[in-house]
Amino acid sequence: MDEKLKILRSPDYKEKSITSLLLLVFSLCFCQAQNHVTIASIGGEGPVLKANLAPQVAVNNMIDYWNERIEEVLPFRPDLIVLPEVFDRPSKYLSSEMKITYYEVRKNQVRDYLASVAKTNNCYIAFGTRREDTKGNLRNSCIILDRSGKTVGIYDKNFPTIREMEEGIVAGTEVPIIETDFGRVAAAICFDLNFMELLDKYAQEKPDIILFPSMYHGGLEQGNWAYSSRSFFVSSLGPNELISEIRNPLGEVIASSTNYFHYVVATINLDAELAHLDGNWQKLRALKEKYGEFVTISDPGKLGAVLISSEKKDISANQMIREFDIELLDDYFNRSRNYRLRQIKD
Predict the structure, then answer these.
(1) 165: part of which helix (H) or strand (E)?
(2) pLDDT 10s per residue in the chain (346 long)?
(3) For residue 15, is it left (φ>0), alpha (ψ between -120 and 50) or beta?
(4) Half-sphere exposure of 91 (CA within 13 A, CB side)
(5) Do 208 and 293 reside in the same domain of the chain?
(6) Can you tell me the distance from the alpha carbon of 250 to that of 299, in angstroms, rounded to the nearest whole number?
(7) In this structure, are 310 and 228 located in the same domain?
(8) pTM of the model
(9) What is the C-alpha R_g of the chain?
(10) Sequence-ordered list of residues with C-beta below 8 angstroms from that of 241, at least 6 positions apart, any chain
(11) Is 97 in the same domain as 229?
(12) Distance between CA atoms of residues 155 and 345, nearest Å
């Protein structure tokens, strides 16, 4: 895309034929169509670290353990790997003093290991960890590394539990949206899922994906967050008895880990839009009749909303929607709000 922009800005662009320029502009307009992203979410608990281990040996064991688990998903060539909340914390069987020593020795070793994995395998990695920020505050964070291993985003848990805060974890106040080469990514951690003020911020921002490293499942809230924010929702859960799931913007589970496999891998298409059925029935039928296998219209039932996804390389879902004058879900809701306001003012 950068090369195409350079051509348009070059001094000799006027000498190019009108046809060539039109083709160039056309390709720029549709560069985001069919945006497939492969995501691997790895759940499960970390290793049991014995009390007599030297701190550096404990750190090495932690890295070896997660390296083995990560290697299981690398054959899928994921664009993004997600790891659980505080995935590299020491075993609960260690004393408080030994845990402090572990973190002092660990420093950035685990992060640096993950950075090397990201760079070697050309993928993003998001992981939950305990860290100390530049001001010395302890944070429960989700760190996102890009394909070169560079840290491109950090989300600090906005709503730690009371116990966490009593133990020194400081609540975050920022709600960053992290830009990646495949879309806009946000995060929530565990207890965060109970607070609608955080969800309201994401509902306004509508990130492409919300990451959820956690120690609890969240139940129906996972689907609620996905639908309310119009985002794909990826959970990576620590306890072995919980399953990690990937949900679409309708809140539906489209892939999950099982009792046999602690990880889940799925390829999602971010080139998707939500529309309500009201006023769109015939338009949706016409859309499907024209594009056939190149458009997917997913209906979860009972909701009255569908997810429209483009499977065509040169035409985006939004272009298809505009072609058939299909009203998007939020546009329909806003039109309803405005109609109501006009009515109650009269």
Answers:
(1) helix 162-166
(2) 444 334 334 444 344 334 333 333 333 343 457 799 999 999 999 998 888 889 999 999 999 999 999 999 999 999 999 999 999 998 776 778 888 899 999 999 999 999 999 999 999 999 999 999 999 999 999 999 999 999 999 999 999 999 999 999 999 999 999 999 999 999 999 999 999 999 999 999 999 999 999 999 999 999 999 999 999 999 999 999 999 999 999 999 999 999 999 999 999 999 999 999 999 999 999 999 999 999 999 999 999 999 999 999 999 999 999 999 999 999 999 999 999 999 998 7
(3) alpha
(4) 15
(5) no
(6) 9
(7) no
(8) 0.89
(9) 23
(10) none
(11) yes
(12) 43
Closest CA to 211 of 201, 222, 220, 200: 222
**Strand, coil or helix: 7:** helix
CA distance 267 to 305: 22
What's at 194, amino acid-wise? N
Shared-domain flag, residues 261 and 286? no
SS3 49: coil
Token pair, residue 272, equals 């998707």
CB 265 within 8 A of CB 245: no
Q: Are residues 11 and 91 in the same domain?
A: no
**85 lies in the same domain as 215:** yes
Together in a domain, 145 and 293:
no
Question: Do 196 and 317 fall into the same domain?
Answer: no
Helices (H) and strands (E) in the chain, counts: 11, 15
- Specify the 3-state DSSP secondary structure of 167: coil
| Angle, helices 96-106/109-121, rounded to nearest 10 degrees | 50
Q: Domain limits at 207?
A: 36-269
The domain tally of the chain equals 3
Q: Which two tokens stand for residue 11?
A: 């001094």
The runs of H, that is alpha helices, within the chain are 2-9, 18-29, 55-73, 96-106, 109-121, 162-166, 196-205, 220-229, 281-291, 317-323, 329-345
Tokens of 278: 């009201």
